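Handout, section B. The chain below has 745 residues.
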Amino acid sequence: MTSAVQFRTRDAYDLPGDHGWAAAALDAMLERVFAELEPPKPLSIVEWAETYRVLSREETNDYAGAYDLENTPALRGILAECDPTKNRRVIVQKSAQLGYTAGVVCNVLGYHVHWEPCVQVVMFPREKSAKDFDAEKFSPMVRSTPELARRIRLKSRSDGNSATRKHYPGGLIKLVASNSPSDVKSTSAKIRIVEEPDDTNKDVKGQGNAIALLRERGKTIRNNFELIGGSPTAKGASEIEKEMRTTDQRRFMVACHDCGERHEVEWAQVVIPGLNLTAEELATSDIDTRFPEREVYGRARHEDAYYVCPHCGSVWSDDERIANIRTAARVAPYYGWEPTADSPDPGFYCNELQSVFDGSRVPVLAEKYLRALHLMEHGDPTEMVAFENSTRGRCWEYSGELPEEEELRKRAEKYAEWTVPAGGMVPLLSVDVQHDRLAVSCWVIGRGEEMWCAYWGEVYGQTVVAHQGAWLELEQLLTQTVGTPSGVRLMIAACGIDCSDGQTSDASYAFVRKHNRQSRPVLALKGAPDDVGRVEIWTPPKKIDPNRKSTKASKFGIQINQVGTAKAKDLILGWAQEGGRIRLPGSGAGRMHWYDGIRDDFYEQMLSEIKIPDRRNPKLRKWKPRTDRRNEALDCAVYALYLSRHLRLHLRRPGQWDLDELRLRQGTLIDSPAPADSSGSMNETADEDSPETEAVDEAVETVQTSAPVATPVPSPIVSPKPPAPAPAVSFAGSGISLSGWRRGQ
C-alpha cells in the first residue's frame, strides 16, 4: 500500500465505540483512488503483446488464445524497435505468411490504445482494404482482447465509431485510403502506419506522394512514429525498396547447430534434388528410377527438398531450421537481426523461410517454385514474379524491358545543342513544371515523326507566381531558333506546358494565356488519369463554357489538352523486349536522336518509368515511375509527341515534307549577300523602295512555307562585312502561307 493510502485521519481512529469499519472503508477508497491515478509502469510492446493480447479464432484457428511470439519469432526484433522513444521510423520489406499484420501492425495499435493512448492513422491503398482490415484483423482483436474491448465499443454510434474510425479514451484510430487527399491530410497523428506502400498513390490528385503527405501529419508531435511495411514489386519502381535504402537494412542471421557459424536464412540455401542435373547424372542407368520424369516438375523432387548450411554443408530438417530461428530470436538486443548499413532508422528484410508455419516448410515452398519455373519456361512469368515478391520478399527485375543507359549514351550523335541534322524541320518546345524550376526540352520533328532532341535543360527560379522567376527565362526560350545544315534557323512551332500541379497551375495558365497565338500555339497540358494506355495520345481539348467558370482553366479562358501519357510511353519506351521507339537504331520513321554532350541525366530520366503487371490483375500492365531517378525528360518527350499529334505532323504526306525541304534550300539562296561589283566593293545599303529591295520581296513571297514566320525583313545590300546569318523559318502547320521573314539571331 502506498504512503498516501497508509495515511489515516486521527478522527477515524478516535471515534467512540466500534468504528474501525470507517477506517477500513477510508483505506479501501484511498487505495482505489490512487490505483486509478497511478501512472502505468513502463511496458514495451513485446511485453504488452505477450501479457494482454489474445488471438481470436476469427484471426487464426491454429493459434487462438494468448499471443505467443514463439509462433512468429522473427517479429520479436521488429516489435522491439517499434518504440517512439527509440525510433522515429521503422521499415519492413516483407514476404507473405509471416504474420506481420496481426503480429506487428495490430500489436502497435493495441499498445497505443491501452497503454499509451494517442491518435493513430493507418493508410491503405484503397478504402476497401481499410474496411477489410477492420473486419478481418482489428475488430476481432478488440473483441478477443479484454483490455481493448473495455476501451473501444465497436458498435457504439454515440462514440462516433465506424468501420474506418475507432474512438477510445485519450485517442482515435483512423483508417484512411491513399487515393483521398482529405483523408490523408486531415488528421495529425503520433502513430502513422502505411500498409503495402507499393500499391499506394504516387500522386494524390496532383498534390504529391501519399506517403509524403501522411508523413507531414506528424511533424509537430513529439516522439511521433512511422511504420511502413509491405511486399516489393518491380526493381527500381518499388516504394518499399526506396524506403529501405535509407535504413540500416537488417538481415535475420541464424547460427548453424552443427558448426555454429551464422548466416542469413534465405532461399539460396534450399536444395531441390533432381533440379539442374548434370549431363553425367542424366546418363546414368538408374536415372528414371531415382528421378522419374513428371509433367510439371520434370525430374525435380520437391518433396525431398532440404535446407543446407552454407558454411559446413550440414543438412537441416524443417524442425531444426525452426529451432535455430527461435534460438536466434531470443537473443537481445537485436533478437537475431543484424544491421548491414549505417542509418538511425531500422529496416528489416523478411522472407518466408523465417516463418515457422506449416505452410512455409521447405518442401511446400519448393513445389511453389517448381510450378512457377514451369510456367515461366512456357512464357508466363507471373507466378515467378509472385514467388520473388511474396516468398523471397525481393524485387523482381524486368531485365530486357528497357535499354540500358549506356546503350543510349553510345547512340549520341555529333551535332551541337540548338541545332538539328538534315531532316528535322518542326521544333517543338515542351515544359515540365516543378516548384523550383522548369524542365525544358526542344524536340525537332521530321518525316514519319522522326525526332531529334535539340535541347534538354532546366531553368531555375520560382514558378508559383506568374510572369516572374523562371517564367521570364521561358519567354526568352520561346524566341530561340534551331540551326540547320543549310544555315536556315527554324523557329519554335509550338509549345506545351504541364499544368497538372495545383500549386503552379495559376502561373502556368497565365503564361499560356499571354503567349498562345495561332501562328505558334502554347498549350496547357495535363496527363490523363490512365496508367494502362486506354486514352489516346491526342484527344480534342474540351471547349470552354463561358457560362460555367468552375475550374481554374476556364477562369483564365484556357482550354485543357489531355495527354494520353501511358499510350505515349507505350510508343516511346515500349514494355516488351525490342519494343519502343527509343530502341530503334539508325535513321528513318519513328527514330529518336539526341546530341553528344547532352546533360548526363537525360539518359536515366528517359528510362525513368517501367510498365509492370498489376499486383491485383497480373495480366494488366501499368506504368510506374522508378524510385531512384527523376522523370522530367521523359515527360517532356511525351509532351513533344502530343504536340506533334496536335499539329497533325504524323499525318503529313511525303510531298508536303518534300516541299518544306525545298523551301529550306531556297531560303539560303534568297538570303545570300549581293555579289561584288567590278571594283571589288559592295554597294551601299539600298533604299527601302529601291528595285533591289522590291526584287527581294518578290522572291520571298514566292517561297511559301507551311506555317507563319516572323515579320519580313528584306536582306539589305551592305558594305563588305561577314555574310549575314540565315533566315528563321517555321514549318508547323499545313497549308499556311509564308507571312514574313526574319534574320537569324
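Note. The first helix runs from residue 3 to 6. Compare this with the example in section A.
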